[in-house]
Structure formats: C-alpha cells, structure tokens
Amino acid sequence: MARKTRRRPAKQEQLKLVPGDYQFPGEKNGYWVAMGVTIGLFVWLAFMVWVLRGQMFAPHQLDPLPVIGLPKGPAWWMLNLLAYPWVVIAFANLLATRHSAAAIKKAGRQAKVMPNNYPDLHRLLANQTRISGMNLPNMYLLRAEMPYIYTIPGGRGTIVLSSGLQEGLNDDELGALIARELGHINSHHVRTSLAIKYMTNANPVFKVLFFPILIIKLFSGGWADLTDFSADRFAVLVTNNAEALNLALVRQAVLADKQADITVEDLEAFLASPGDMAGDSKQMERRFRIGSFIGSQPNLQERITQISDYLGSDEYIQAMEKMEQLRRKAGAAQSAEG
Fold first, then answer.
1. Domain extents in the chain
2. Sign (positive/negative) of CA torsion 113, 119, 124, 127?
3. Residue 82 C-alpha from the chain's centroid
4. Contact 131, 238 (CB under 8 A)
5. How many CA atoms lie within 13 A of 308 on its CB side?
6. Of 117, 116, 112, which is closest to residue 136 (Cα–Cα)?
7. Per-residue pLDDT of the chain (338 residues; tens, 9 = 90+)
8. Cα dist. 148→53, 254, 329 in Å?
9. Other CB atoms within 10 A of residue 268 CB
C-alpha cells in the first residue's frame, strides 16, 4: 500500500530590505576578496604543517603529539588552525567592546531604550525596523557629552547612543543616524569592521597575534569606507530624507569639534547649494569656511556626494519601489495591531 505523504506548504519569502537593494558597488567584492585571500592562506598553512608533521616525526610519534595534545586521526589541530581567523575576529570584538559593555552595565537597566522610559526613541527605532523588515535590536542611551552612535555585535545587535548626540540633533537627523546603524546591522558589517578598527589602534603585540585581521584589512582595500556608503544608502531608503542624513553627518562632526564655529542655518544653506558662491563677501566666507571644514573630515565630502549620486540612480528608483511595498505592509500590520 502506497504511503501517503504530506506536502509541506512552500515558505513565503519574507519581504524586507536586503543588502543587494542598497549595497554600494564594490563593497561585496572587496569583502570576499579579503576573506578569500585569508582563508586561502590558512588552508595553505594547514596543508604545509600537515606535510611537515609527517616528515619531522615517525609514525609512532604522531599519536598523539604531546605538544598539541590532540589525536592525529581527526586532525582537530588542523581545524583549529583553519578556525584561527574567526577566533581572532571574535576576540578582537570582545576587546573592542569591553569598555562599552562596562558603561552599559554601569548605566543600568534604565539606560535601555524601552517604551516605558524612552517612548519616542523606542517608537522611532521600532518603526524603522518594521519598515525595513528587520528584527528589533537593543538600544542604550548613555549619559555622555561626547557625541557618538555606534553598534556592537551580538544577537540582534546593540546600538549605543550618547545623550550628547541626541541633544545636538533634531528628530529627523537623529532618525537618519539610527537608520545608518540599522544599515550596518542588516548588512552584517559590524563584526569585521569593528575588528579592523580595533586592530588599527592596537599595540604591536596584538597586531602580531591578530595578524589575520591585518591581512583582511590589507586586501579589503577601502571596504570599510564602502560600508559607510552602503549604510548611508540604507538610511536614505528607510527615512526617505537625504537632506536630514546630510545634515546629521555634518552636525555630528561639528558637535565633535569644539573649534568648529558653524551654525545649523549655515549648514542648511551650504548643503542646499554648495556650489553657489554668489552673494556678498560674508556669504562667500561662510561657504568657504563650511566647505573647508567638510573637506577636512575623513570621507565626509565623499559621502555627501555619493548620497546625491544615489538619488539620481536606477538602483535608487528600484529600491524605492520595494520600500513602498514595505511601507504599505508595515502600515497594514500597524493598523491590524491597533
């Protein structure tokens, strides 16, 4: 008798923003070139150690090696060598986030952004994740004068925001920077970029021990900069407000530089028409001063330019069509809940 089988219903693909919708050209390729070189190098090292092991020791000495303390049969020591790049990335992340973890622990549960203590901030974060089809990450607001926002890895991700940045921006600008962090989370940038950033400023001993990260950095080229471009694109799509993102990027730099004598009105006028030098000498001096400041900040001018270029691209039009679907879906879900 033939056995009846139940046919499982086909899984419906979840509608959400994926990196391919907004990824800056060259970012994906740069990442995989660096990873491919690193993986290939460690595969070669593992193979060479395997060959040398057989040449240096008699067969009866290879089961097990006292130094390694692992049996030769499964060759777990080889797997450990192949896993070394991922181990050092994880350890670099642990070292890079230890101060943040301590600050979050010291601030206590009241620093976590939740509906009962920071309703507006939580609503903003929830709306952006709902629109983009993401899971809601953790978010903490720490009392600090220094203006910063960044993401630490683990689980759904954790966004850390300072009160100095929150108080220095309006709601639209703050929303644009939060959306950027969501873009990094959605693109899986955080672990690798954080490890690279940590190794850039690490002491020489750690640079030697964590040399796989240096290899990744060397062969990734400008990958870290391209991740910022991709996150900017994500923020433009989610907020539908490129002007707020441009203002937020510059104002964050201004807040961090105590010597910068630039007002919000100056920035808005400059970003509205950066190439317009008409007017009196005072206006020309203001534009020159703001332009010089933006040019002095690493990659800031390039990021503003690429945002403008993206708005006129076919990729932006296609991504916005998907965003309209996501907004309708999010609106329908919110209405059903209400």
1. 24-325
2. positive
3. 26
4. yes
5. 12
6. 112
7. 455 555 554 445 578 899 999 999 999 999 999 999 999 998 888 788 777 766 665 555 454 544 444 445 445 566 777 889 999 999 999 999 999 999 999 999 999 999 999 999 999 999 999 999 999 999 999 999 999 999 999 899 999 999 999 999 999 999 999 999 999 999 999 999 999 999 988 888 888 889 999 999 999 888 999 999 999 999 999 999 999 999 999 999 888 887 777 777 777 777 666 555 455 566 667 677 777 777 777 888 899 999 999 999 999 999 999 999 999 888 877 777 65
8. 50, 12, 32
9. 13
Residues in the chain: 338
Structure tokens that stand for 71 in this block: 């049996």
**To 5 degrees, how large is the angle CA 83–CA 84–CA 90?**
95
- Extract the tokens encoding 4: 């009846």
What would the two tokens of residue 115 be?
């509906």
Q: Residue 257 burial by CB count (10 A; 0-12/13-18/19+): exposed, middle or buried?
A: middle
| Residue carrying structure tokens 């220095």 | 168
What six digits make up the tokens of 233? 């694109």
What letter represents residue 296's amino acid? S
Query: What is the separation, in whole angstroms, between the first and last Cα of the chain?
Result: 52
Interatomic CA distance for residues 178 and 128, integer angstroms: 9
